[in-house]
UniProtKB/TrEMBL annotation:
Record's protein name: Dimethylglycine dehydrogenase
All copies of domain GCVT N-terminal, residue ranges: 428-703
Domain of life: Bacteria
Keyword vocabulary terms for this entry: Oxidoreductase
Species whose genome carries this gene: Aestuariispira insulae
Length: 811
C-alpha cells in the first residue's frame, strides 16, 4: 500500500469509483481508493439499477445524459460489461395536472437536445407498455434513453478503467481517522497503515456522515429504507418479448408512485411509499455490508394495491423476493458535491441516490473541480454549499422523509412544504403572519411571499397556472408603484469586510471598482473563466470597512469562495447572517415616509441614488441605502436583530398616513421584471459571462487585475454568442416558470431563465437567452415561448417597460 498519494477517495460504491476514474481520465494518475469492505458494499449492490436523463434541473439533466453516454466508454476501457439494457421508457400521467408536468418536462428537453421525447396518448402508451390498464391514465411521455444496468458490473467497470489508467484500489481496509496537517494535506489513517494525501474525497455513501464527522462536520444526509419486489416469471412478459423482440420498457407510474421494469422473465416493481422509514438515523454501523433489511410488505401494501390495479398482470404473479435496502438522500434529493467550506482539500461526493443516472456526471464535475478549480458545468443544484448550519440532524431527518414520500408527486412552482418549518424566524414573523402573510422558507428562513386580504384564507392553491394569490399580488404591486410598500429583506446575504487591505482585496475579487465612502456599487463576481458566480451590492462604510449584500441562498457558496481567496493578513470577512436584518421601503411616497422618521437628511439632493449612510431611524441606529430592487424610488434600512420589531412598528405606524402596504417576494419579482432585473441562480449562473448577461456595464476592465478579467476581456472583444433579453409574452392563464424553450421560425433557439406576470403593467414577461444575432429583433413577431405545451407568441423588448430611463429610481 502506498504511503503517499495525491488523492484518497474514501468509498467503493459507484460514485467513488466514478470519481477515481475521472481523476485518472483528466490526468491525475497518483490516486487511490480505500474501501472498508468490497466494492459495492453499501447501497450500490442492491440498487434497482434504473437510469434516465430527465431531471427537474436542466443542468443536472445534462450530467445525467453524460453519465449514460459514458457507459460504452468504460466498458471498452475496462473490458467489463455494465449489463446495459437501453429499453426506453414511458412516464404515465393519471391526471391533467400530471400531463402539464410532462409537457413542462418535454419542453425542457427541447433545448437540451432531447428531441426524441414524445408526448403520447394513453392508447399509444399501452401499445408500448402493454401491462398497463389504460383506463387509469390520461397520457404519457416516451423517452428512448431510459433503461437499467447491472449495478455491480457498472461499478467494477469504473474501477477497472481507473486501474488501467494508473489508479490503485485498497479493499478490506477501513479508514479510521483523518488528520489534517498544517499545510492542508491529510493523513488518512486506515486499518493497514497511514496514507499521506494532498486531497481527500468523501464518497462514503451510507457512511458519509461518519467520514464527515472525522473532520468535525455533520453532512445533511440520511438513509431511507427502500423496497422493491421481483416477481416470478410472467407469461405476459414472455408474450411481449416474443411479439416485439424486445424487453418490456421501463415505466414510471407517478400517481401510483411506482417504477417498473423487466427482470429476467418477470418484472421489478419499486415504490417510494409515503410512510417511508429512515434507517440508522444517527450512526451507520461499520459492520453493515452485503446485507438486506427485513421487508415490510404491510408498509408498501397501499402502493402494491394501486400497482395491481394499474397493472393487472401483477395481481396474478407470484412474488419471488422483496428487496429492502438503505439509500442515502440529502434534504432535497440532490447530491452533495464539491469542496467543503472551511476544510482545505476535503471534497464531498455523497447523497447521490440516483447513482446510475448521476454518478458519471458527479465524477466528472468533481474531478474537474479538483484539477482545474472549477466543475466545468453549472452544478449549483448539487453543490454541497447550498446547505448551511441550519441543516441539523433533526432538520435533515424531517426534510429527507418528506422528500422521499413525495418522490413521484408533482412539485408545483408555488408550493411550499411543511417539514422542518418554521425554523429560522425574525422577530416580526408573528406580526407578518397576523397581517395574512403566506410564507416560504429559503435556507430555513421564513419569508413572506404574499399577503392574503382581510377575510380570506392565507393558503395558496398550488398550480402550474395563475393561482388565488394573483389578485392579492396585483394589489401589492399597485400599492408600491402608486404609494409606498414595505418588504422584509432580512433573508438577503450580508457580509462585513474590514482591514487595511480590504479595498484592494475586494477590487481583486469583484469586477467593478469599489465605491467611495458613503456610496454603493453593483459588482459582479467572476470565476477564472469569466463566468458569473455572484452579483452584489457593495457599500463603503468607512476606510477599510465595507458591507456587501447578496443572494441569501448563496451565502455559504460565496463565503467558501471568499475564504478560499482570503490573504493571511490585512483582510477580515464575516458573514452577518440574521445578526443584521432589515426592511425596504419602495414607491413614490417612500421618501415622504422616510423624512418623518429619519434622523438624517434624505432629500433628493442630500441623499442620492446609491448613497449609503449610518443614521438614526426614530430611536434606532441603522444603515440606510438609497436603493430598491423594485426599480422604484426606495430605501433599504439595516439594523441589528434586536431593533427589527421596533423598526417595523415605527414604519407601519407612521406609514398609515402615506398608504403603506406590506408586500412579499411575489410582488418584488413582478416589479423587478418590469425593470428587466435578473437574479442569481436564474439569469446569473456560472455558465453565463457578464456581457451576455447584460452585466457588462458593471465590469471595469480598466481598474487593474481581478479574477476573471482576461476572460471578460475576451468575451467583450469577441462578443457574446447569446444575450439576455426581456420578452413580452402573449400568455393567458399561465406564465413562464423558467426553463421553457424559446422558438424562432419553428426552431428552438434559446431558453427562459425566469419570468411571470408584471401586474402593474399588466403584461406577462420572460427573461431568457437568445443568440446575439436575434437579440435585436424587436417586434418581429417571429418568436414564441412554449408554456404547458402551447406556443405563445413573444416579442423582444428593446428596453425595460417601466421607467426605462430610471427617473423614478434615481429621483
Amino acid at each position: 500500500m502506498k504511503t503517499h498519494t495525491q488523492v484518497v477517495v474514501i468509498g467503493g460504491g459507484v460514485v467513488g469509483c466514478s470519481v477515481l476514474y475521472h481523476l485518472t481520465k483528466l490526468g491525475w494518475k497518483d490516486v487511490v481508493l480505500v474501501e472498508r469492505s468490497e466494492l459495492t458494499s453499501g447501497s450500490t449492490w442492491h440498487a434497482a439499477g434504473g437510469f434516465h436523463t430527465l431531471n427537474g434541473d436542466p443542468n443536472v439533466a445534462k450530467l445525467q445524459s453524460y453519465t449514460i453516454d459514458l457507459y460504452k466508454e468504460i466498458e471498452e476501457k475496462s473490458g467489463q460489461s455494465c449489463g446495459l439494457h437501453l429499453t426506453g421508457g414511458v412516464m404515465l400521467a393519471g391526471t391533467r395536472e400530471r400531463m402539464d408536468f410532462l409537457r413542462l418536462a418535454q419542453a425542457k428537453g427541447r433545448y437540451l437536445g432531447m428531441d426524441d421525447l414524445q408526448l403520447i396518448t394513453a392508447d399509444e402508451a399501452a401499445a408500448i407498455f402493454p401491462l398497463m390498464d389504460k383506463k387509469h391514465f390520461e397520457g404519457a411521455l416516451y423517452d428512448p434513453i431510459e433503461g437499467h444496468l447491472d449495478p455491480s458490473g457498472t461499478t467494477h467497470a469504473y474501477a477497472k478503467a481507473a486501474k488501467v489508467n494508473g489508479a490503485e484500489i485498497y479493499l478490506r481496509n477501513k479508514v479510521e481517522e483523518l488528520v489534517q496537517r498544517p499545510d492542508g494535506s491529510w493523513d488518512v489513517i486506515t486499518e493497514k497503515g497511514t496514507i499521506h494525501a494532498e486531497h481527500v474525497v468523501n464518497a462514503g455513501g451510507l457512511w458519509a456522515r461518519e467520514v464527515g464527522r472525522m473532520v468535525g462536520i455533520e453532512l445533511p444526509v440520511l438513509a431511507m429504507e427502500h423496497m422493491y419486489l421481483l416477481t416470478e416469471d410472467m407469461p405476459e412478459v414472455a408474450a411481449i418479448n416474443k411479439d416485439t423482440g424486445k424487453e418490456v420498457p421501463h415505466c414510471i407510474d407517478f400517481e401510483g408512485e411506482l417504477y417498473l421494469r423487466q427482470e429476467r422473465g418477470g418484472m421489478l416493481m419499486g415504490t417510494y411509499e409515503r410512510a417511508g422509514v429512515p434507517w440508522s438515523e444517527k450512526t451507520t454501523p461499520w459492520d453493515f455490508g452485503h446485507e438486506l433489511l427485513q421487508p415490510d410488505i404491510d408498509r408498501i401494501a397501499p402502493s402494491l394495491e394501486v400497482g395491481f390495479k394499474h397493472f393487472p398482470a401483477f395481481a396474478q404473479a407470484g412474488i419471488k423476493q422483496i428487496i429492502n435496502g438503505p439509500f442515502t438522500f440529502a434534504p432535497d434529493g440532490n447530491p452533495l458535491v464539491g469542496p467543503v467550506r472551511g476544510l482545505q482539500n476535503y471534497w464531498s461526493a455523497c447523497g447521490v441516490m440516483a447513482g446510475f443516472s448521476q454518478g458519471g456526471g458527479v465524477g466528472l464535475a468533481l474531478a474537474n473541480w479538483m484539477i482545474n478549480g472549477d466543475p466545468g458545468f453549472d452544478v449549483w443544484g448539487m453543490d454541497v454549499a447550498r446547505y448551511g448550519d441550519w441543516t441539523t440532524m433533526a432538520y435533515t431527518n424531517a426534510k429527507v422523509r418528506e422528500n422521499y414520500s413525495r418522490r413521484f408527486r408533482i412539485a408545483f412552482p408555488n408550493e411550499t412544504l411543511p417539514a422542518g418549518r418554521p425554523l429560522r424566524m425574525t422577530s416580526i414573523y408573528d406580526r407578518l403572519k397576523e397581517k395574512g402573510a403566506v410564507f416560504a422558507d429559503s435556507c430555513g428562513i421564513e419569508s413572506a411571499m404574499w399577503f392574503a386580504p382581510d377575510g380570506t384564507e392565507a393558503v395558496e392553491q398550488v398550480s402550474f397556472h395563475r393561482s388565488n394569490a394573483f389578485d392579492a399580488v396585483a394589489a401589492e404591486c399597485r400599492a408600491v408603484r402608486e404609494k409606498v410598500g414595505l418588504f422584509e429583506i432580512s433573508g438577503f446575504a450580508k457580509y462585513e469586510v474590514t482591514g487595511l487591505e480590504a479595498e484592494g482585496w475586494l477590487n481583486h475579487m469583484l469586477a467593478n471598482t469599489m465605491p467611495a465612502i458613503g456610496r454603493m456599487v453593483l459588482a459582479p463576481m467572476l470565476n477564472r473563466e469569466g463566468k458569473l458566480i455572484g452579483d452584489f451590492t457593495v457599500a463603503k462604510v468607512a476606510q477599510g470597512h465595507f458591507l456587501i449584500f447578496g443572494t441569501g441562498v448563496a451565502e455559504d457558496y460565496h463565503m467558501r469562495w471568499f475564504e478560499e481567496h482570503l490573504p493571511e493578513t490585512g483582510v477580515q470577512i464575516r458573514c452577518l447572517g440574521l445578526d443584521l436584518v432589515g426592511l425596504s421601503l419602495s414607491g413614490p411616497k417612500s421618501r415622504d415616509l422616510m423624512t418623518t422618521v429619519a434622523g438624517g437628511d434624505v432629500s433628493a439632493e442630500a441623499f442620492k441614488f446609491m448613497d449609503f449612510a449610518k443614521m438614526d431611524v426614530g430611536m434606532i441606529p441603522a444603515y440606510v441605502g438609497r436603493v430598491s430592487f423594485t426599480g422604484d424610488l426606495g430605501f433599504e434600512i439595516w439594523v441589528k436583530a434586536d431593533y427589527l420589531t421596533a423598526l417595523y412598528d415605527l414604519l407601519t405606524a407612521k406609514g398609515e398616513d402615506f398608504g403603506l402596504t406590506l408586500f412579499g417576494s411575489r410582488a418584488l419579482r413582478s416589479l423587478s421584471l418590469e425593470k428587466a432585473f435578473g437574479s442569481w441562480a436564474t439569469e446569473y449562473r456560472p455558465i453565463y459571462g457578464p456581457y451576455e448577461a447584460a452585466m457588462g456595464r458593471f465590469v471595469n476592465l480598466n481598474k487593474g487585475d481581478f479574477i476573471g478579467r482576461d476572460a471578460a476581456v475576451r468575451e467583450k472583444e469577441e462578443g457574446p454568442t447569446r444575450k439576455l433579453v426581456l420578452m413580452d409574452v402573449a400568455a393567458t392563464d399561465a406564465d413562464v416558470l423558467g426553463d421553457e424553450p424559446i422558438w424562432h421560425r419553428g426552431e428552438v433557439i434559446g431558453w427562459v431563465t425566469s419570468g411571470g406576470y408584471a401586474h402593474y403593467l399588466k403584461k406577462s414577461l420572460a427573461l431568457g437567452y437568445v443568440p446575439t444575432a436575434l437579440s435585436g429583433e424587436y417586434g418581429a413577431g417571429e418568436f414564441s415561448i412554449e408554456i404547458l405545451g402551447r406556443e405563445c407568441s413573444a416579442t423582444i423588448l428593446p428596453e425595460a417597460p417601466f421607467d426605462p430611463k430610471g427617473e423614478r429610481m434615481r429621483g
